[in-house]
Design goal:
Length: 644
């Protein structure tokens, strides 16, 4: 099997950019190239956890020792490098302002990664009510680390904050559970919440877009649990830029096992403590349903244990293709279970981690949202949050609203006292024949389409071999609207603005000639023909009549009643399928149209459903894949949250 070292390096660099290791960008506000080295001292230490395992930790302390500083920490599986004396990051901390403001900045390799000892577990399960030092999780590791830092790092003021984007965001969330008393502020950003709904799955559907990332997570080290400062995993090299054709030609998921020859049951390793390592590809294959493995590793269900002394600011992007469920559910569950806590949310027009970049022009894919949106966030929101709780009074009067949210249709920030907004109401629109989206339902007319397993609907017309796609979240959906296996419903041209503010629920009434099917719903903002094109637009596209995808989601139909207990469809039987789409804050402006698209394949973003029920799709055979005819009835409806 061949693997691409260049691809591996690209992915590593991409991850590290999102977690704070960014190359200096030469803008008017850019810092001196060696600012960190000139203004900070660096030390690397091994901090012993309660069970004796030592975690590698890099500490940057200001050279000015005339005052005390708070500590800002990021725990990461993506390396705290550069390792060794005299080697410094180009930038430290969440943003340039916080770096200049004066903080002690700490990076730590989490248990079992890079130079830290111990065994790595992918989204390690939380252990409540621990009774011995042998019971460890990410909460206890964070607690023990903070305890060491506040007692051993000179000139700290006894206050600690944590932050992280994506996987480090998960660790930032985890830090708030059973938190150390010194932890005063946490900002989980694009934080993973549950791998059955984030990243590797969406509502139980496996994301093929994450296929090449599998090796990054849970591949045991070649020397058991001993530290290693180089990448010990390799990424599959599919040797083509055409992912659509690659996955179509490879057929069933079981045919991809060969890309993980070092990750098969036959080559499981037995660690010195007698525990068998389950490689992550095996875990994906062996646990197709929402069973104890996935349930135990989710952090969302444990957020009732967030300590009241920790202020939280949850950050996300409305167009984050990787982690949208996580930050939204993290905010909502902290809010639900911890009424007295300081808890705020910030959502902007960003893709994954876009708020941490320095580019003054903010766009996702083809769609431009405005200038300096990320820079505004870094200076006026993120810096203000940490300064208040780590340097200021730390009371609840931070000057920040409950919700700082960007209206991606009007292209402007809004500050709200609650999320969803108090003045939002539920409105229902029915799918009707003649491609209409109407306020009142009529008779249940069957609308049929053929779902051909040999010609699945692509997620974009611009599919490349990428680690995980991002631009498709704002892609023009005209290509899909013109396919016979995509049902289209839309309003008349709007005579006044329509603001979608909150979650969206699709209540579909469907049938299929088979026993299995996926269902995909997309919410589209159809632009008028007199809109000027922006510079980000691909050469063959114009913004005139652009079909902007505002929100989309899939539900693997077998999980329509339970994610833990799947069940087949009864052929040709009318069946309810409810799909929760994640929150949105978008104004479809006067002169635009609201459109809904319904389809059954979304390839190769998600894997291909055989459309014949099998117990485990990872074990489906070629003969299980059959073309079927699907039906959507016109008593189906979409429930929107509308701002009044």
């Amino acid at each position: 099997m061949k693997y691409s070292f260049q691809n591996l390096v690209f992915v590593l660099v991409s991850f590290m950019m999102l977690t704070g290791c960014k190359k200096a960008v030469k803008t008017e506000s850019a810092v001196v190239e060696n600012y960190v080295e000139l203004n900070y001292n660096k030390q690397e230490v091994e901090i012993a956890m309660r069970d004796g395992v030592k975690l590698h930790t890099t500490i940057y302390t200001p050279k000015d020792t005339g005052k005390e500083y708070p500590i800002l920490m990021q725990r990461t599986p993506y390396s705290s490098r550069p390792y060794g004396p005299g080697k410094f990051r180009k930038q430290i901390g969440p943003n340039e302002h916080l770096m200049k403001d004066g903080y002690i900045v700490v990076y730590q390799d989490v248990r079992g990664r890079w130079l830290s000892e111990g065994h790595y577990e992918n989204m390690r399960a939380y252990i409540p009510n621990k009774t011995s030092n042998d019971q460890v999780d990410e909460s206890s590791d964070t607690y023990d680390t903070i305890e060491w830092l506040v007692n051993n790092v000179d000139n700290n003021n006894g206050k600690v904050g944590v932050w992280g984007i994506s996987y480090p965001g998960f660790y930032a969330t985890y830090a708030t559970v059973d938190a150390h008393p010194a932890l005063k502020a946490a900002s989980p950003q694009a934080c993973i919440g549950d791998f059955f709904f984030d990243d590797f799955h969406h509502n139980g559907a496996y994301l093929l877009s994450y296929f090449r990332a599998t090796s990054l997570f849970g591949t045991p080290r070649p020397n058991n649990d001993q530290p290693i400062d180089t990448a010990w995993y390799v990424l599959p090299d599919i040797q083509t830029d055409d992912q659509y054709q690659f996955f179509l030609d490879n057929g069933p998921l079981k045919n991809l096992n060969s890309f993980f020859e070092y990750e098969t049951v036959d080559t499981q390793t037995i660690r010195p403590d007698g525990v068998t390592d389950d490689y992550f590809w095996n875990e994906l294959k062996d646990h197709p349903n929402y069973d104890e493995l996935w349930q135990s590793r989710g952090i969302i269900q444990h957020l009732k244990n967030v300590k009241s002394h920790v202020a939280t600011m949850i950050v996300g992007g409305w167009f984050d293709a990787e982690d949208l469920y996580g930050p939204l559910e993290t905010y909502k569950n902290i809010e639900k279970h911890n009424k007295g806590n300081y808890n705020t949310m910030v959502f902007g027009p960003w893709d994954h981690g876009g708020w941490a970049r320095k580019n003054p022009r903010n766009a996702v894919g083809n769609y431009y949202f405005g200038d300096s949106i990320s820079l505004f966030y870094q200076k006026n929101i993120e810096t203000k949050f940490f300064d208040h709780f780590l340097k200021g009074t730390g009371d609840k009067n931070s000057g920040l609203p409950e919700a700082y949210v960007f209206d991606s249709g009007r292209k402007e920030w809004k500050t709200l006292d609650t999320w969803p907004p108090q003045n939002s109401v539920k409105e229902t629109m029915f799918l009707s024949e003649n491609q209409e989206l109407i306020p009142a339902g009529k008779d249940a007319v069957p609308l049929k389409f053929i779902s051909d397993v040999k010609k699945p609907v692509p997620y974009s017309e611009d599919i490349k071999s990428v680690f995980t796609p991002r631009k498709y979240m704002t892609d023009d959906q005209r290509f899909a609207a013109r396919r016979s296996d995509v049902l289209v419903f839309e309003t008349e041209v709007l005579e006044e603005d329509l603001t979608l503010a909150g979650d969206i629920m699709a209540n579909l009434k469907v049938a299929t000639t088979g026993t299995a099917a996926d269902w995909v719903v997309k919410i589209i903002d159809v632009h008028p023909s007199n809109v000027e094109t922006n510079e980000e637009m691909q050469d063959h596209l114009k913004l005139a009549n652009y079909h902007l995808m505002v929100r989309s989601e899939v539900l693997r139909g077998r999980f329509r009643n339970s994610f833990s207990h799947p069940e087949p469809f009864v052929p040709n039987k009318k069946t309810d399928v409810d799909i929760k789409l994640q929150d949105v804050f978008h104004t479809i402006k006067k002169g635009h149209k609201l459109q809904v698209q319904v389809q059954s394949t979304w390839f190769p973003l998600i894997d291909l459903n055989p459309q014949t029920y099998v117990d485990n799709i990872f074990e489906a055979d070629e003969e299980d894949f059959k073309t079927q005819t699907h039906t959507v009835f016109t008593d189906s409806f979409i429930e929107f949250s509308i701002l009044k």
